[in-house]
Amino acid sequence: MDPSPRSGPVERQRPDGRPRHPAGEARGDARRRWVVGISTAVLLLAVVAMPVFYAFVLAVASFSGCFLECTEPNIGAGVGLTVAIVVLLALPVVGGVAVARLHSSSRNAVGVAILAVVVMALLLLVL
């Protein structure tokens, strides 16, 4: 027999030893993570906005060959700049998802959405 019987509800702990919180606090924590994740994504988007704009202008100039005056188009530079644009646009989304610590099903949905946006961006830049 246990020499010190416990009275009242047993407080369960997480595998890392921290106590579990009631459902209301857990929901508030998840909501706060979402807000911080979205805020991080918006902040990162503001940081990469100007480099994306400049890369877009240079990519269009590389594909068409015309900026201030027309020359031979440089498709390789245009494709390289397009890849740079896609990577820069993916940074805010990936950063926001990482900060929000989404569950695997949410991560899968966000991953599919990111893929759709990247494919659409590539189609719009190439066509």
How would you describe the overall organization of this protein?
This protein has helices spanning 23-64, 75-100, 104-126. The protein is an all-alpha fold and 127 residues long. It has one domain (23-126). The model has no long low-confidence stretch (mean pLDDT 77).
Task: Describe the structure in brief.
The chain is mostly helical. It is built from 3 helices and no strands.
Number of domains: 1
- End-to-end separation: 77 Å
| Strand fraction | under 5%
N-to-C order of helices and strands: HHH
Category from helices, strands and their pairing: mainly alpha
Q: What quaternary form is this?
A: single chain
Total helical elements: 3
**Overall average residue pLDDT:** 77
Q: Roughly what percent helix?
A: over 70%
Work out the number of β strands.
0
- Give the overall silhouette: elongated
